Amino acid sequence: MPTIVVEVMPKAELLDPAGKAVAGALARLGHTEFANVRIGKRFELTVEGPITEATLAAARTIAEEMLSNQVIEDVISVHEAPASGASA
Amino acid sequence: MPTIVVEVMPKAELLDPAGKAVAGALARLGHTEFANVRIGKRFELTVEGPITEATLAAARTIAEEMLSNQVIEDVISVHEAPASGASA
């Protein structure tokens, strides 16, 4: 079924303790090439029927109002997933 | 700074209770166009210096071994973020 992907990340000016912990663990394990890690969320909204501009607009509203906390998070992307849904 | 994005989602065959809760809430609020919601994670790994094939390979290894739990999650994408970092 068609899927809309919503990506939410913690605001850049806020500390991300979980991300900091992962960055520290990577450094201890020898992966010093990664300077920083931030952890956000990725939502997949499955849509019944085709994705229209109205569906995308509804998804954008939901992303701002319900899927993210605007005090601490930014919605960085709302887009249709590629047909197969998976890419590597 | 250049950034590698890692996307992790719960495996399709597993229940995602948080996603189910969001889907239920959306339906109660009148957003019946969304049949299902699944919630995964999105990591941003900041790289010092340019992103090489070796950096991407290291990120893929880290994604499989440390950023995801292979019993319940799939790494669906490891890719370089677009230059500005943000898109809507």
Layout of secondary structure:
The structure is a homodimer of 88-residue chains.
Chain A: E1 3-10, H1 17-28, E2 34-47, H2 53-67, E3 73-80
Antiparallel strand pairs in A: 1-2, 1-3
Outline:
The structure is a homodimer of 88-residue chains. Chain A is built from two helices and three strands.
Polypeptide structure, described:
The structure is a homodimer of 88-residue chains. By secondary structure, chain A is an alpha+beta fold. Chain A contains two helices and three strands. The first copy, chain A, has a three-stranded antiparallel sheet. Chain A starts with a strand and ends in an 8-residue tail after the last strand. Strand 2 (34-47) of chain A pairs antiparallel with strand 2 of chain B.
Properties at a glance:
homodimer, 88 residues, three-stranded antiparallel β-sheet, alpha+beta, 3 strands
**What proportion strand of chain A?**
25-35%
Low-confidence stretches of chain A: none
Biggest sheet descriptor of chain A: 3 strands, antiparallel
Chain pair forming the biggest interface: A-B, 43 and 42 residues
Question: Total helix count of chain A?
Answer: 2
Q: Could you report the average pLDDT of chain A, rounded to the nearest whole number? A: 92
Distance between the termini of chain A: 20 Å
Give the SSE order of chain A as H and E letters.
EHEHE
Quaternary status: homodimer
User: By helix and strand content of chain A, what is the structural category?
Assistant: alpha+beta
Strand line-up across the major sheet of chain A: 2-1-3
Estimated radius of gyration of chain A: 16 Å
Portion of residues in helices of chain A? Answer: 25-40%
Assign an overall shape of chain A: elongated
The count of β-strands of chain A is: 3
